[in-house]
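hey m, so remember when u said the tokens were messed up on ur end? i reran from scratch. heres the input so u can diff it against urs
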Amino acid sequence: MSERFSLSLPIAAIRDGDRIDLAADEKECAAIAGRLNLPTVGALKAHAVLTRDGESIKATGRLKANLEQSCVASGEPIATSVDEPFELHFRPEPGGQPDEEIELKADDLDTIFHDGSVLPIGEALIDTLALSLDPFPRGPNATVALHEAGVLSEEEAGPFAALAALKRDKGDA
């Protein structure tokens, strides 16, 4: 089954063991780039096998993308490839009161809640892509751009830099 990335699967139609293949078209790639504040998303594909246990559904698969990120120092585009395995758990929205505290366990961290009618697999995969990106990408000119902006390197700003400066000053006296 081949679908688009904006895919929301009707839960009633999901059978245990279903496989889905997703590919973002050009328009969807542009929308995803805008949403994630990326210069471009050239390609985005994913495949997943769905396993079902009542209203709980697990999607296990792989996400691949070719995109550009902006260097944090110079702003120049950096070509990036993503090849990320994933395992997402979809469960019904928990009941309870709006201000009621909910205790989360470690296995709840990759859980996405659904409304009981559709599985937001496309949205979950876009979130997975966002989490797999380097939060501080640096291009080849990053060091020069940072130096020109007056940002000190680790060696210049670290605790031993102050000692080196004292040693130099003492040697000059």
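this time it looks ok to me. Residues 2-139 form one domain. if urs says something different then somethings off w ur setup not the seq
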